[in-house]
Every structure is written in C-alpha cells, then in structure tokens.
Amino acid sequence: MTTVRDNFTDAARKALSLAKEEAGRFSSKSIGPEYLLIGLLRVGDSRARMILQNLDIEIDRMRRAVEAYIRPDGRDSQREIGLILQARQVIESAQREALLRTQERTDTDHLLLALAQAPESFVTSVLQNFGARPEQIRAFMPPIPDQAPPSSQD
C-alpha cells in the first residue's frame, strides 16, 4: 500500500496488509474502514487487541458483525486494490494521534481510536455497540503530554 510509511509499527503495517487481503477476499474494489477493522482484529499480538480484550469485547463476534455488513462489489482481480477516502482519513487521523502523543510510530491503538472516531462510519457504530468508545480506548493509551493527569501532590 502506498500509504504505509516507515512511521508505522510492524503490527500496524501487518493490520494494513491484512486489510488489503480481506478486501481481496471479499472481492472489493477498495479498502474501506470495515477492512481496516478486520485487519486490526486479525493481528494477534497488538495494542489494539489488548485494548479490546481489556474492554471484554469478543473479537471473533465483532469480526463476524463487520463481515455480515460487507457486500462484495465484483472487483476485477487484475486491478490493484486502493484505499477509499474514508480509510485514508482514518490512517491520517491515526498518524496525527501518534504525533499528539509524541510517539515516533503509528501503532494499532492509534488506528483503533481513529476508527472509533470516524464520522458517519458503520465501523464506528460497530465499535461503539460493542463498547469500544473513543474515551474508553484512550484510557488504555499513553496520555497526550500536555494533558497528563494531574499529580496527587497538588
């Protein structure tokens, strides 16, 4: 994928690669947020998976809910699968989130948070219905430096 840069962790790169694989499996012409989420759910050892497990979310059940929504669109198997605008915006949002937290690389938790915040997205609804709201996801992420919790010594 052309959007995968060196500033992604191996787990995030793997999630993006798996998203592309899933889009191909469903004969999709493009990669949307639904494939990004399925890709994240397939990465075994990741920060996103740890967050979802800490929120007591059944990952296989969530994956089935997303897959039930997907309708194949008859992609020509010879054509390259690209990102749709909404998926591109999710990736850009994830990158901004990593920068806000002064982290050098974008990881799966940044992608998960970006998906949970994506406007007018089916994936956002799925995440929220399963109990993965942005504020809950943030609780398991490193704080933004300027917004660190106040110390108890005040």
- CATH topology type: Double Clp-N motif
What is the tally of beta strands? 2
Identify the CATH class: Mainly Alpha
- The helix fraction, in percent, is 40-55%
Task: Give, in spatial order, the strands making up the sheet with the most strands.
Answer: 1-2
Portion of residues in beta strands equals: under 5%
Gross geometry: globular
Summing up helix and strand content along with how strands pair, one would put the structural category as mainly alpha
CATH superfamily: Clp, N-terminal domain
Question: Could you give the order of the helices and strands?
Answer: HEHHHEHHHH
Major β-sheet annotation: 2 strands, parallel
Number of alpha- plus pi-helical segments: 8
Task: Determine the mean pLDDT.
Answer: 89
Distance from N terminus to C terminus (CA atoms, Å) equals: 48 Å
Q: Unreliable stretches, pLDDT < 50, 5 or more residues?
A: none
CATH architectural arrangement: Orthogonal Bundle
Structural overview:
By secondary structure, the chain is an all-alpha fold. The protein has a single domain, classed as Clp, N-terminal domain (Double Clp-N motif, Orthogonal Bundle). It has eight helices and two strands. Strands 1-2 form a two-stranded parallel ribbon. Helix 5 packs across helix 6. The longest helix is centred in the first third of the chain and has 16 residues.
